[in-house]
Amino acid sequence: MTVSLFIYAMLGVATFPFIYYLISLYSAWGFFRRRSVPGPKSEFTPPVSNLKPIRGVDPDAYENFASFCRQDYPDYELLFCVGERDDPAVPILEKLARDFPERRITVLFGTSGNAANDKVAKLARLVSEARNEVVVISDSDVRARPDYLRTVVAPLADPKVGAVTCFYVPTEEKTLAESLQTIGMVSDFYAGILVARQLDGVKFALGPTIATTRTRLAGFGGYKAIENQPGDDLLVGRLIAEQGYEVELLPYTILTVADYGSMPDLLHKRMRWVVVMRHMRPWGHLGLLFTQGLPWSLAAVAIQPTATVALGYLGAYLGLRLAMTWLIGVRGLGDRALWKKLWLIPVWDALAFFIWIFSFVRSSIRWRGGEYYIRDGQLVPVTANPAEK
């Protein structure tokens, strides 16, 4: 009797991911059905400062930067901040200035202080040097279409909107790791974002694009206040939302160029993000256990190995995961080529599950060649043992 109760209890818990998947489908359907992207000829076009922290050279860096010089927007400047004058990105930025003399391009060197988060320290300086009230912050691996600035700035015409962010998709996929990352973003990360929006509103931002104002940033102390913390994009959205403003998530995509090509690179990238989330949202991270449909379905089949259970759980898992990925990626974001990668969904889910497990024993993260601990919400650089130097 006790064994039977345990089996039924486990079978019941194994359905929890399906409930999450259904909420994901409902959230995605509602978002993409009702939301519309502001027209490319929006009349709200205040002067804009584009801010880019730079460290090293990303693949296709020149084309990424040049796309911001080709914006269909009346008045904007480009500000880059690099750490040292011998940074390999400097010659590319100099070429950019020569090729686009009509654009106002400024390159800043160095930051004040000794912040653990080099990117955020650069953003603090960029905001302080910006000429305009409206700022658009984007990563160095982002490539924008000509309507980008008009689209992401337009919602700021509403005084209730404090920040704008949007989805991102890769320019192309050359390796299995890059295809896995795309499947993970669409079927896992974006699904979670849309569920969070449905249940609690948008209280975060996505790093590849944050459009806001210097006033909204100053409202929480600016980047200087978070220069030793990880997850700056999430924090900026949260801190602006806590001031009572809306964070607008657009059903619009920008392009990113992958800065990894191998499975180890992807694992490091994913592990960094998961470990940061474990520290920033510990209970939410723990709750991810009940969104893992593949391991729970396999567990259900293992404890009750019948054809009915196998067909019911594995069939529901595959059907719901395919539906989520199609609704978000194909119908919502317009990625027509996603069909060819749907077979990777179980591969990604297995990989993501093991990364989630190992995140509980991982004590440091690797980012841009540096390694850091996260202690009390702060980034602490890992100091090499002198004996190992």
Secondary-structure map with pairings?
Elements: H1 2-13, H2 16-34, E1 48-53, H3 61-67, E2 76-82, H4 90-99, E3 104-109, H5 118-129, E4 134-137, E5 142-143, H6 148-153, E6 161-170, H7 176-200, E7 210-213, H8 214-218, H9 232-241, E8 246-256, H10 263-280, H11 282-287, H12 293-303, H13 307-332, H14 345-359, E9 364-367, E10 370-375, E11 378-381
Helix pairs in contact: 1-12, 2-7, 2-13, 7-13, 7-14, 10-14, 12-13
Q: How would you characterize the largest beta sheet? A: 5 strands, mixed
Classify the fold: give the CATH topology of the largest domain: Spore Coat Polysaccharide Biosynthesis Protein SpsA, Chain A
What is the level-2 CATH architecture name of the largest domain?
Alpha-Beta Complex
* Total separate domains: 2
Silhouette: globular
Explain what this protein looks like in three dimensions.
The strands form 3 sheets. Strands 3-2-1-4-7 form a 5-stranded mixed sheet, sandwiched between helices. Strands 5-8-6 form a 3-stranded mixed sheet, sandwiched between helices. Strands 9-10-11 form a 3-stranded antiparallel sheet, with helices on one face. The protein folds into 2 domains: 113 residues, no CATH class; 224 residues, Spore Coat Polysaccharide Biosynthesis Protein SpsA, Chain A, CATH 3.90.550. The C terminus is likely disordered. It starts with a helix and ends in an 8-residue tail after the last strand. Helices cover 47% and strands 16% of the residues. The longest helix has 26 residues. The chain has 389 residues and is an alpha/beta fold.
